[in-house]
């Protein structure tokens, strides 16, 4: 279950993954009761997993609505498994019940190959290119990317579609947008994009990185597992991780089309242990600081059964004030297998969803808080035991009242301060 911040009058908008397809849900923030539900089309990976008995297809598929955003009117914007970009509002009916309503449907199939596996097309002969993620830019366009390297835009006012192709490159992560452009990472390189006046995406700069020699356990593909992180006290940096074989590196670059190539890379910092480092989640940034967690070893919920855990680790890295390089500030032994962690600037705490190894075979899960300044644990709160409490890549989301929400295998968990 993926959970963006509580919005829409405090109600939660989330996507719940099931074997029959993704469900868009509106939830009560206190009781977690479902107020409204909208069924999205079933993904090809689900059909493949069932018919070919290969359930890794599901766990390595980031398309079909896994990434989405809420616009300025709290409408969901996502790309479904039919290669359509949808804008979906929710409203309360006269009888008090809530419902989702599709307000816009932009069909990308004229630009994106869509001969995909389905129950009526089990052995397609063509190409299927799922849409990974969508994001808005400063000019009101909706940008979208596909697994097979297509980068495109939709003009919501006119419906005009534009696209380019990054041949031979794969995009399995989301991307980031600032006023100065769009940052996209493929399994080969980090890109800075801008759109022409007619909406055609144009590459402003490109930086390759060490993609290693294979996909590590804990990664979706052979490349960076991070969505680019835009940060800096003057909003001048972008950071990703690489996929170097021995030790993964945190890479910090200067943004902007006018940066000389020799000055683009600010630092390259190796993190975690030799032969056991990867992340498939976004970095956390605050000011000139970055925090990265280690997901090495987590592939699906079965990975952690019978008391097992990952090697874990969390590291904070700071860019020097003069931009001359980066320094490691602290390292923590927190074992956060797959969650997208969060930082609360209200209390200075980092939140992780942790599983510790148990010689008794107990699969216990905890919401763990770490002091951003020192890297020391502030507290851990037990949430439950067993497979159903595995978050399986879902994020932690901090609500306006301080509630921590975690999507887990059988639903959603809320952890609150006592009165």
Draw up the topology in text.
Layout: E1 12-18, E2 21-27, E3 34-39, H1 44-52, H2 56-59, E4 69-70, E5 76-79, E6 84-92, E7 98-107, E8 131-136, E9 142-146, E10 150-154, E11 161-165, E12 176-178, E13 181-185, E14 189-195, E15 201-208, E16 229-231, E17 237-241, E18 249-254, H3 261-264, E19 265-270, E20 284-286, E21 289-293, E22 314-319, E23 326-332, E24 342-344, E25 349-355, E26 364-371, E27 377-385, E28 396-398, E29 404-408, E30 411-415
Antiparallel strand pairs: 1-2, 2-3, 4-5, 5-6, 6-7, 8-9, 9-10, 10-11, 12-13, 13-14, 14-15, 16-17, 17-18, 18-19, 20-21, 21-22, 22-23, 24-25, 25-26, 26-27, 28-29, 29-30
- Unreliably modeled segments: none
* Strand ordering within the main sheet: 4-5-6-7
What is the structural class? mainly beta
**Could you tell me the strand content as a percent range?**
35-45%
Rg over C-alpha atoms, rounded to the nearest angstrom: 21 Å
Number of helices: 3
Cα(first) to Cα(last) distance is: 28 Å
3D architecture notes:
By secondary structure, this protein is mostly beta strands. It has three helices and 30 strands. The strands form eight sheets. The chain has a four-stranded antiparallel β-sheet with strand order 4-5-6-7, with no helix packed on it. Strands 8-9-10-11 form a four-stranded antiparallel β-sheet, with no helix packed on it. A four-stranded antiparallel β-sheet has the order 12-13-14-15, with no helix packed on it. β22 and β23 form a beta hairpin. It is globular and about 50 Å long. The mean pLDDT is about 95.
